[in-house]
Amino acid sequence: MPRMPADALLAKTTQVTSGALSYTTNFSNRWRLVSVTVRWNTAPTTSGNLTITTDDTAGSAYDTVLYSQDPSSTSATSVSFIPEGDLLFEKNTEIVIAHSNTDNRTISVNVRGEVF
């Protein structure tokens, strides 16, 4: 797929300083996922998966886990998810980034996408 002009590239960001992370993008257009980056201020020590899941307009039966990893298993302070191929989403289909954050770390999330 041809790349979009730079003005079509959007970033969606959020941050939590304690408690669970549950962030849903709001591109509200047809869009392509470019990347998701997640950063903890200190590596989590309690087991709990970071998940990136679709939130499909067709309903929860169509939601799909795109990525799942337990950052405590590798003492990770950052995770990057870059799709191997084009992940295209219809208008109002979004993604949800979630982590239990039992250790109450500060978590920063950046989602980059191209609207078309």
Specify the oligomeric state.
single chain
* CATH structural architecture: Sandwich
Average pLDDT reading: 91
**CATH overall fold name:** Jelly Rolls
Rg on CA atoms, Å: 14 Å
Secondary-structure element order, N to C: EEEEEEEEE
Reading off the top of the CATH hierarchy, the class is best stated as: Mainly Beta
Helix tally?
A: 0
β-strand number: 9
Q: Strand portion, in percent?
A: over 45%
Main pleated-sheet profile: 5 strands, antiparallel
Described by the principal axes of the CA atoms, the overall outline is globular
- CA distance, first residue to last residue: 11 Å
Q: Are there runs of 5+ residues with pLDDT below 50, and where?
A: none
Quickly count the domains: 1
Helix coverage percent: under 10%
Give a brief description.
This protein has about 120 residues and is mainly β. The chain has strands spanning about 10-15, 20-25, 30-40, 50-55, 65-70, 80, 90, 95-100, 105-115. It contains no helices and nine strands.
